Amino acid sequence: MRFNLAAALLALPLLAASDTPDYQAQFQEFLGQAQGHFEKLASRLPSPNTYDPVAAAAAKDGPNNVHVIALHNWKETLYGPVTPGSITPEEWWVLMTGGNKTCFGHCGKVEAAFNETAGKFASEATSPHMALLNCDNQPVLCNAWSAPVGSLWIFEMLPEPSPISIFSKRLNLTTVTSDDLVQLEKGGYKAVAREHDGIFHPFNGPLAQNGLSIPAGYLLWACGLLPSWAFMILVSLFSRRMMASRMEGQMRGGPRPATTGQAAPRR
Ligand SMILES: *[C@@H]1O[C@H](CO)[C@@H](O)[C@H](O)[C@H]1NC(C)=O
Ligand SMILES: *[C@@H]1O[C@H](CO)[C@@H](O)[C@H](O)[C@H]1NC(C)=O
Ligand SMILES: *[C@@H]1O[C@H](CO)[C@@H](O)[C@H](O)[C@H]1NC(C)=O
Prior knowledge:
Elements: H1 2-19, H2 21-44, H3 53-61, E1 66-68, H4 74-79, E2 90-97, H5 108-121, E3 129-134, H6 139-145, E4 151-157, E5 165-170, H7 178-187, E6 194-195, H8 206-209, H9 213-225, H10 228-251
Parallel strand pairs: 1-3, 2-3
Antiparallel strand pairs: 2-4, 4-5, 5-6
The structure holds 2-acetamido-2-deoxy-beta-D-glucopyranose (3 copies).
One 2-acetamido-2-deoxy-beta-D-glucopyranose (NAG) binds at residues 99-100, 105.
């Protein structure tokens, strides 16, 4: 619940700003500045992301041919097999997995089934490319995509700047087998998976289009570390401050906001 609340709070002003053409230019300028500040800040924070390049290389070159994606390499990995000018999508299957922290130790079976499936696919020429995203190791990326652990995301990659379709399917963590996944590929996933859209879409969503996915991922990850009561207190302090400064503005005889004034962003 606290996750959704944070997401909603984050999304509202962004969507409001990007939907009003009048403020678009102003918003872009603000965005540029915010990104600059964010990059400086992020370079000083201790990174919550872990990635083992040796293990990742071994997994990629191993018999299962499984890629391990992370914040720094997901995009180039997914675009890797895409040829310029191609109109047939390259299919990537990405399993959102996790360990004791994000999946409470329940992702072992689905991960093993996925690995086994990758081994079967590796010998077929037209089968999907396979990748693992471990949310214990990559909390920022998982938050930026708002990706639930234990789900399978199927990316249909086309050359840039084409929009990318993603289909997602929740897998049953207690029962799923490699045969189920092979069957999903044979039978066609479009009938049983859901097309993914919304503000967190890694390519087409408004956050990604404005370069805000990763800041949002950090913000949501940080909100997730707070206990929910602390989050509520922050929200209430913040809204009181806003009320107080608005009242103060009126008492000083500042310009009275028009009746619709609240919708207009401040300069
Ligand atoms: C996850 O938790 C289980 C049970 O508490 C423990 O046996 C296992 O070592 C833990 N795994 C990791 C990677 O910490
Ligand atoms: C699946 O494969 C990856 C990459 O080789 C490996 O790190 C992981 O431990 C495997 N998971 C299971 C449950 O075998
Ligand atoms: C997974 O499958 C088992 C056995 O069919 C079922 O009891 C369980 O409710 C399923 N879990 C989910 C999350 O659908």
